[in-house]
Amino acid sequence: MLMPAIVWFIIFLYKPMYGLQIAFKDYSIFRGVADSPWTGFEHFETLFSNDQFIRAFWNTIKISALNLLFGFPAPIILALMFNEVINATYKKTAQTIVYLPHFISSVIIAGIVITAFSPSVGIVNTVLGWLGIDPIYFLTKPEWFRPIFVGTGIWQEAGFGSIVFLAAIAGVNPSLYESAVVDGASRWQMMWRITIPSILPTIIIMLIIRIGNVMEVSFELIILLYQPATYETADVVNTFVYRQGLQSGRYDFAAAAGLFNAVVAFVLVMVANTLSRRYSRTSLW
Amino acid sequence: MSSVTLSGVEKYYGELRVVHGINLIIELQEFVVLVGPSGCGKSTTLRMIAGLEEISEGTINIENRVVNRVAPKDRDVAMVFQNYALYPHLKVFENIAFGLRIRKEPKEHIEKTVREVSEILGLTPYLDRRPAELSGGQRQRVAMGRAIVRHPKVFLFDEPLSNLDAKLRTQMRAEIKRLHNRLGVTSVYVTHDQVEAMTLADRIVVMNDGIIEQVGTPMELFNNPANMFVAGFIGSPPMNQLDGVITTSATGLHATVGDTSIALPALDNVKAGQAVVVGIRPEHISMSSVDGLSPVPISLDLVEPLGSEALLHATVNGQALIIKAETHGEISHLHQVAEIYAPVDLIKVFDAETGKVLNSAARQS
Amino acid sequence: MRKLLLSSAIAAGMVAATPTVAQDHLKIVEGDPLELTVQMNHARYPVYEESWPVEQQAREWTNVHLIDVTVGANMRTDENTGKTEALNLMLASGKIPDIVGSSRIKDFVNQYGPEGAFLPLNDLIDEHAPNLKKFFEEKPEIAAAISAADGKMYYIPYLPDGKYGRAYWIRTDWLDALGLDMPETVEDYEKVLRAFKTQDPNGNGEADEVPYFARQWPELIRLVTLWDGRSSGSDTSHDFMVVDGKIEHPYAGEGYREGIKNLARWYEEGLVDAEIFTRGSSARDFLLSENLGGSTHDWFASTSGYNRLSSDIEGFEFKAMAPPASVSGKRIEEHRRIPIKPDGWAIGGTNKHPVETIKYFDFWFTEEGRRLANFGVEGMHYDMKDGKAIFKQEFLDQGPVNRSLYQVGSQLQGRGYYQDYDYEIQWSNEFALEGIKLYDEGDYLIDQFLGVAFNADEQKIYDRHWGSVRDYMLERQQAWVLGNGDVEAEWDDYQSQLEDLGLSKVIDVMNSAYKRQYGG
Question: Do the interacting molecules here have an ipTM over 0.85?
Fold first, then answer.
């Protein structure tokens, strides 16, 4: 019974790893992986000697940190809020509305964001106008890129992300709440003292997974939203590699950057998992 | 002064009525057990007292205050749940202290009270553990500790022992009884187990299909069941019930069960030919001849030895009959039993149609 | 095989119905037709069809049959990667067909040709392809431009005809409404744009006009030519340029600095669309149809078409204007159609019939072949009148002419052929033709940089530095225009940063490649 799983792993996960070696080669599609000459760490040296790569790396970390700080709690808060909604029709409608953006493609999302933040017709600047504030050309201001990007990410994914936490909340024994009601707990107290501690293992697992994806900032959306004027804050490793590598067919270089990304992500997951196992007794493995 | 009063309490879920007008007065310090088969409305009644379910009709009164519109926390009741409802992420100490913390009691008071309670319950060595690290009995005690610690006016127990094995259940039953004796707090206890009801209760409330069948002390219910349902629910094994027809003769009232005639006690309002059910408790059946009684022939199916007693499964004209007999350390003679005697003044007669007992009220008391 | 014979029979039938005369001199092989496998695709027509009438006609004339073995399709239109998706797939599959045609094939064959994936064409052309040979002898700069670093040609390009690409466009009815003349100098142009902003030419009582707008923001940077700067040396944005036989980058020049300074001023003053960097490809459509846009720099053919809006907007007239004279009095139009595209076709390295294949390539450069590639099949899609191919009216009426041509197998950019601008004139809008005439008279075009082919060492240096240099240039450029920085104050820092990032190293390798390729 294990065979199909093993075959699947070999074909789809381990065999492709063979291709990773092009990160250390001067790769030519025509020659193929095996016949391309070795170059050692040349691609990595190229990467690390590039100031823009270093900047992109820190931008990735910063955007991810903001994402984690604001984007990670958002679906949890949303799930807790849904849990407090009593009217079933209202709850279902609200859930559908917040799930929807998840199913919209990045291209459309970017279009919506560009329109919303447009200095002439955008809703944001219209509202600022009512408050007597001059229009701001948000998408060309480096200092605004991260808030807009992280906010967009939350808007797009918080609803869908709340599903897993709603499921965890549904798994909490209802008599815990009844007992607390009899003990005199308010809804707020029940949320803090029962719901959140009860779904904490789920939260931690999701957090570890999330940390593993730190380097995978939603790259299509950045490509669609950034401008040379905002590279300073918007350029992440993936977009950097896209511009420098893939645009000129440098697969070997892109593979080196990808490998570096994977190593960083792996280290982060290991650290997060170890810390979590030590302090909360919850861990992925 | 009464502690809890239920007047005409009803509960509907949509169109479905699950509790049909309960009237019950529970005295101060009394231990009342609501017993009945599952779905009889006993838990719903308890949860209405706790405030976890809304009361559809009627009123509930706790210490002279109508609590229909009072939030659970302001009713001053504490509840112990079937699955303990312990918080898995909190240590025993914090579980017990939960209600006090919620009420923002001073820290020293919490510390002191929790210590006292855990001392009473023998939980002191376990205060630093989490629920997952406790045995079933210990968890049960923590659940009770959480209730006790708040010194409520009323304890509510919702089948608290049903998750324990038989041995532990017996032990915890005794502990609950002792605790009640010691603390003297009015308690309402729900169970489907009549043994628990008998052993714990000051008074038992037998419920069925959302109504109260009978209220009384355990011995009242045992000796004088008001109807066939109570007779069949209380006692272990329950009362034998044989379908018969009234016949009158010079020697008095009889019930004809098939071609056997059983002598009945004097009854006021029966007539010959009336269909009745003859009730006789297994332990009241005699195997040695009794003056003035004719023997009832039985056919014996099975003898179940229980040690000092044995249960004899038999039939009378095809109707099942269980006899509880002393063994005196020997059961071989029980296999030979072919006839029994039913002591006439211990027999209960029920109307076959209404199920109500026909023995006169005077005789019952 | 049966299917093939059947379709040939159908084609023969079709051809027989047309007044084409037999063209025996075009035959490449006698007897049984020679079958060559082909991989061909392009984002504009993702699928190659053997049944295209043009292909059938070519089969009949040459007796060479192309057999479609295309893998993948270039469905995405993003620069570079999207356009060579199918090529990468083909190469990764390990089988290279006899003929490979694609968009963006140049860099691809120049990299993999020397490794053996494609055949060098120089000797084959010399010996077997008189038409191609003649063409390259007449235009040696084109032969130089398509050569790889080893000096050999690996593909035959699609060669666009016609010089004009983009032009300045202005709402002449707005000029009339405000009593202004067509701007002749950069000062005039600025005044006109300011008038558009402040004098409410659309008459709606609001200052909502957008004086200068563009679908692609590099067209804003293009305006630095008005201050004697440059924005690109070729039809690709931000490209290098040739000055006195040497490669330079336009974004490092003094004129550029002056231009950016003034564009920042224009932006600040609202003469330029505030959203120019994010409005994107719908800018022209939106701003013109909402009666908001005043002037732009865009393609002749598509922009002239907006004059159809005159049916909705009273008096709407959007005409080409000559490039305004720069501060030093020069009038240049920096953009033009590039004479060679990186699209075209090549011969696979394992081709068993290289001679016949180059002859087949050569066929498309004969008079008949070129007409076939440009106009379709005579009698079906066009007729000859006075020695000129004239499209049938019903063919022009079928909808967008470009699309109709793709559908019959004509004007395929995955095929190496020489475009005939006549094909486009026949269906160009009067406003476009008028504009082209204006630009022809003024002779505003300048020479273009046609690109270089690097050797491996040069490529490495270019790859290592150019991306960073370009990113930095664009970052500062936008910041300056948007007022997030001051070009005057930062110019020296900018120059030294470019040096640190390696601009001079990139220029050096560009120059060495340029010298090798064009004989400097």
Answer: no
